[in-house]
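FIELD: query
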Amino acid sequence: MNKTYDCLVIGCGLAGAVISRELAERAGKKVLIMEKRSHIAGTTYDFLNEDGILVHKYGPHIFHTYNKRVFDYVSRFTKWRDYSHEVLANVYGKLMPVPFNLNSLYMAFDLKKADRLEQKLVSAYGMGQRLTIAELGNNKDSEFQELADFIYNNVFLNYTQKQWGVTPEEIDSSVIARVPILISRDNRYFQDTYQGIPANGYTSLFDKLLDHPNISLRLDTDANELLKIIEDDIFFEDRPFKGTVIYTGALDQFFDCQFGRLPYRTVDFLFETHDVTWYQSKGTINYTVDQPFTRITEFKHLTGQSVYNKTTIMKEYPKSYTGSEGETPYYPIISSDNFKLYEKYKQLTNSLRDFYLLGRLAEYKYYNMDAIIERALILADEIICSRKGNNIDEDNNIYSSVL
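FIELD: result
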């Protein structure tokens, strides 16, 4: 039996790092994190490039949440840059805020028509309301139907085809139904209570999150080569392991894709540094009707760095994930068939003692950052409570001793 560690955590993204800290700090467990990459922080990893500009290696990450527990938890490990993300859509050269709002109206239509539409929207739905393109399109008012068609064709359709690699007929109706329209002049992409960027970056946040004497870390380590399942027993480095295992990696890969590969979308990121102070007016501009890439992000808007006459941008080119070396699975392609395939893999873990799946790859779900932090905190609550015979305080998602 391996007596060195109480817990093995596979993956050092948000899911793995948060639950490692919780088990190390609150439960006093000795935790080993194994990470296949050569760096911590998973897909939130950021670094200074050769021009001294802080960039996000795997796409822009903006922290936002309504959850005070999550915000307070992350705030233990970072100070914040007060930043509210704004996104523009480039529609045939016109830049308009997305989600589509009242300001977008006046960029899409002439003044008289935009003013009439605004009055009708406010009268029908109320100022400050959020509705979906399906709700607007189902309205009997012909101008509302025209507006819904405009948003669908110019803001949603081509962007979604590029993002997911599907034809219009293949776009799930539930996805279309969720396309938001804001009856407001709030240009923020997110309306959450708490928003910001870690003041010194995400990697710095992870450095502090992992700074605990009970946490050990191995980078450049493929846990799938060290962790084996033999007749419902877990072996680590060829010895039986009786502690807790938290797996945050791709579940199909853990089982050598024996039932077939789970489908994902991945992204190629193209970084460019330009000899100008600013490349574009906002942090992110979506290209919704043309260009082979989906969006351009300019990082200085996010980080607040003052670098004169030099800026770095990133273009994103989505494509199908093939499992080739260097590719990262980012977005699970949710469908009934794919979920059934995932369930076949999940069933292989049901008989394992003290083995937990956590995160977007292990659970085949898309999580925002705050949601995966909350999920990790709740799982830590459950694990710690099960050891101590305590109850979970469901209102606050924390454990409390049984009196």
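FIELD: remark
Residues 87-182 form one domain.
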